[in-house]
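Quarterly update from the structural biology core.
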Amino acid sequence: MDRAGRPNRRWLLASGLAGVTVALAGCSSRKAASSARVASATTSASPEARPTTPATAFARLMEGNKRWVSGDLQHPDRDPNRRQFVAQEQEPFGAILSCIDSRVPPELLFDTGLGDLYVMRTGGEAVGPVVTGSVEYGPMTSGTPLVVVLGHQRCGAVKAAYTSLRDGKPLPGNLQAIVKALQPAYEQAVREGGADPVETMARAQVELTAADLRSNRDLAPLVRKGALAVVGAYYSLDTGKVEVLGGAPS
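Predicted structure, tokenized:
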């Protein structure tokens, strides 16, 4: 091949150097991205300090609910790094007893993350020995300083129980067990009256359940010495706001 047909050596050298520069730049970018991921993992794995008192735990929950209402959500501690951080042990700062209703997920409406809450969900917050034991678990084994009994607007379980008791028509299968558990709330609602007896019953169920837990043989000593608060609360489907019915720590 003549000189005109051969590649220019200077051009080859320049092209080679340019390729090396691009490759090095790519490596630097990957290293920077990797460092950023490590930094992110460190940040995620070092969450805001766990509340250790009833008042600080309650404040954390209510701050999260304010974000839920406004839409200014933080979505804290909901990634693989947090998952790894809590994989070996957990120290939830709150225990929530709420309804099974699909519109009332405690972790979302309090804007909390993985490992923050123990959550028990039953129809109309109906309780029994297993449910009560589940509520007791956090305060008695890991020092969880807050229990919240959370009822909600337009509760289908409460409505079904109210109708069953009013009309004297038992519900099928194990649904009748929910009716039986909610009967004290029904009786209180009948005594109180009001324009919307189902809503009255739903609130009564929260108040009665929270009072029972506060006087529970194992939880009452923790409540008396200020290590635990049992709060009754009510969630609005319309606004997303959690209203405190009683027991809020000062």
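The longest helix spans residues 9-44.
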